[in-house]
Amino acid sequence: MAPELVVQKASPDDVVVVDDPVHSGRKAVKVTISLDEDYSHVANGAPRAEIVFPGSLRFEVGHHYLIRWSTYIPSSFVPDDDESVVITQIHQGGCCSGPPPIMLTIRGDHYEFAERSDVNGVRQQVLRKIKSDIGRWVNWVLRYVPDPSGVKSRTELRKDDVVVYSSDRWPNAYSDDQTSYLKIGLYKSKWDFKNDANRRLCLLFGDILISERGEGSLGIVSALDSDTE
């Protein structure tokens, strides 16, 4: 991967480049987490396999961003009704602690999306079921104008060109945070060790494009150029 990218994983095989399962000749990034691995040396010690985007791609308050990415859920994916798994997040910078201000998760048989701030709490919405997405690529677009006051804030999520979440003037960032950043992959803060069916989770990601209004493309991450070693 690009030198600035950080990969959080327990073992080398948790984030790897593989052949695209749908499009011949293309590549994708495969991320995996498993209860059989030791995560004590990874971030906060919870199961995760995530790509952290570089310092040059930080989200500033009041700026207008567009983020495009794609996900592929393999047939081996076993939903967990009790505990969600984060697949995409905008994480706050070093200013403050708490859950991410923007978070897309899979919980049970459906997606969930949440936006939050330290001022106005959280707004969360259940999205569509994942059943029809298994075995195909899903294209996501997030329009994001971070503002902890809510005065200029804008959050809109599209799934395959259909708006599935939209809000205006709802605080969607932490106060004084000018360094929030994008993370993709799998993160599961809690995991039920008694459920053997959920001992291993896998997800694929395609290219990611981040652009800013008035600035053009800020960066593109391509699986074709990835080096996960």
Instruction: Summarize the biggest pleated sheet.
Output: 9 strands, antiparallel
What does the overall shape look like? globular
Q: Label the CATH architecture.
A: Sandwich
What structural category arises from helix and sheet content? mainly beta
Rounded mean pLDDT is 88
Order of secondary-structure elements: EEEEEEEEEEEEEEEE
Number of helices: 0
Classified by CATH, the class is: Mainly Beta
The total beta strand count reads 16
* Low-confidence runs of at least 5 consecutive residues: none
**What percent of residues adopt helix (DSSP H or I)?**
under 10%
Number of domains: 1
Could you give the distance between the termini? 9 Å
CATH topology: Jelly Rolls
Rg from C-alpha positions? 17 Å
Share of residues in strands: over 45%
Describe this structure in words.
The protein is mainly beta and 229 residues long. It has one domain (6-225): Jelly Rolls (Sandwich), CATH 2.60.120.200. 0% of the residues lie in helices and 46% in strands. It has strands at residues 6-8, 15-19, 27-34, 48-52, 65-72, 85-91, 102-107, 110-117, 121-129, 137-145, 154-159, 162-168, 181-187, 200-205, 208-212, 216-221. The termini are close together. It holds the Pfam family Polysacc_lyase.
